[in-house]
Specification:
- The chain is built from 11 helices and 22 strands.
- It has 422 residues and is of the alpha+beta class.
- It has 3 domains: 2-121 and 230-319, Alpha-Beta Complex (Spore Coat Polysaccharide Biosynthesis Protein SpsA, Chain A); 124-220, no CATH class; 330-395.
- The strands form 4 sheets. Strands 1, 2, 3, 4, 5, 6, 16, 19, 20, 21 and 22 form an 11-stranded mixed beta sheet that branches. A 5-stranded antiparallel beta sheet has the order 9-11-7-13-14, with no helix packed on it.
- Helix 1 links the parallel strand 1 and strand 2.
- Helix 7 packs parallel to helix 9, helix 7 (330-347) packs parallel to helix 10 and helix 8 (350-369) runs antiparallel to helix 9.
- The two termini are 21 Å apart.
- The model has no long low-confidence stretch (mean pLDDT 90).
Length: 422
């Protein structure tokens, strides 16, 4: 069995080297081989030098950057594997990440694709809060100018930085060889709304329990403290608004909520293993997306052909996350606005699409009232989506004429236990 590993990269040399090194350590059963393929998506950094150090890698070089879907699809002509694995450049695989997926795909013909358990690559110092009943306070973390400020995470009960009794703030530590070291220890700043917990004792547990009797306060975090790993993705879901999300995002791995193999609605494209014949039958990634939602769309197409998608927790892939596209940057907002509207046109009811379009027009009005097109990232995404709208609508019409599975049924599916076929 040959596994073609398709890795698109765009100015991601600091991630690509460690990613390829981790692939070299992959444990394979007898007769299995890897075929790494790097799609250089308009890079101008040290990517050529990195590739020169890895003669085992096939490389496709493009002068201009393409979208994520187009970059992955470019490997279609050169990939020769029975299985195709789409892998982000900002990942590092565990040695045994293919053990169970290869076993499932060899034994169960119903399975079209398998998703790994993605863990955030960073280790996190958990800051746990014990507050008086009904109390809340504002918590923010600062890395003193480090890019890791974007990597701070909170437990799911936290909204806009307001923590309650039992809430947790997670402080990320630098990834060696990728992130610069801290110039100073990170801090957590605590502030209280007037009268809420003023004068009360707040217990904060980091490396050791500490009490804070007066607010505002500043808590220094010891980078040598005990750390935890957080789940980044345990399969993808779609809510009633057709917004995509990550199962388990931000949960501590030791919670054990995602320890069983399950059938899932969709799989994250950061680590997605698919049968080649299943991919060819649906035409690989729909390329009317630039970035985001193309993996969910592909998964729905695979399921529309009757294939199962399985989340495999023993297949562990460490994910830096948003290594190429910085979270909540202007480009991120533009791409999400564009792709979400195209996805809704493809899979939503007419009423849902109309609602999404009206909502996006409302955001556009708000952005344009601020006066500068350069800041109107969501508006640019809307305009781009409207110009590309014909293609997903035509795909929807063709699927209907071919008698493919009902899009509404595909979207509304949920997780279910997986049992290997006998």
């Amino acid at each position: 069995m040959k596994v073609s590993i398709v890795i698109p990269t765009s100015n991601g040399s600091r991630f690509l080297g460690p990613c390829l090194e981790s692939l070299r350590k992959t444990r394979l059963p007898p007769g299995a081989v890897l075929e790494p393929i790097v799609v250089d998506n308009g890079s101008s950094d040290r990517t050529p030098q990195i590739l020169a150090q890895h003669p085992e890698v096939k490389s496709l070089v493009f002068e201009r950057a393409m979208g994520f879907a187009q970059a992955n699809n470019a490997a279609r002509k050169v990939a020769t594997g029975d299985l195709i694995c789409f892998l982000n450049n900002d990942t590092q695989v565990d040695p045994g990440w293919l053990d169970r997926p290869l076993q499932i795909l060899a034994r169960d013909a119903r399975v079209a694709g398998i998703g790994s358990k993605l863990l955030y690559m960073h280790r996190y110092v958990p800051v746990r809060f014990s507050l008086p009943r009904g109390g809340r306070l504002r918590a923010t973390a600062s890395m003193f100018g480090s890019p890791l400020n974007d990597k701070v995470r909170f437990s799911p009960d936290v909204r806009d930085g307001w923590v309650h009794d039992g809430s947790v703030l997670y402080v990320p530590l630098p990834v060696p060889g990728i992130d610069p070291p801290f110039s100073a220890d990170p801090v957590v700043r605590l502030a209280a709304p007037a009268g809420a917990v003023e004068g009360a004792t707040v217990t904060v547990c980091a490396s050791a329990p500490r009490s804070v009797a007066r607010l505002p306060a500043m808590l220094h975090i010891d980078p040598g403290a005990e750390t935890v790993r957080l789940v980044q993705n345990a399969g993808n879901f779609l809510n009633d608004r057709l917004e995509g999300g990550d199962f388990g995002s931000g949960e501590e791995e030791t919670a054990g909520r995602f320890a069983s193999e399950e059938i899932v609605p969709a799989i994250c494209g950061a680590a997605l293993i698919v049968r080649r014949e299943a991919l060819d039958s649906v035409g690989w990634f729909p390329d009317y997306y630039t970035m985001y939602y193309e993996d969910v769309d592909l998964c729905l197409l695979l399921r529309g052909k009757g294939g199962l998608l399985v989340f495999c927790p023993s297949s562990v892939v460490n994910h830096y996350h948003t290594g190429t596209s910085r979270e909540y940057s202007a480009k991120f907002i533009e791409n999400v606005a564009r792709s979400s509207l195209l996805f809704t046109s493809r899979y939503g009811t007419p009423a849902r699409f109309a609602g999404a379009l009206l909502e996006r027009l409302g955001h556009t009005r708000h952005e344009l009232l601020r006066g500068r097109w350069a800041a109107a990232a969501g508006t640019r995404g809307l305009v781009s989506a409207l110009l590309a709208l014909r293609r997903p609508l035509m795909s929807r019409i063709r699927a209907s004429l071919e008698g493919s599975a009902n899009p509404t049924e595909l979207v509304r599916s949920s997780r279910a236990p997986y049992s290997e076929a006998r």
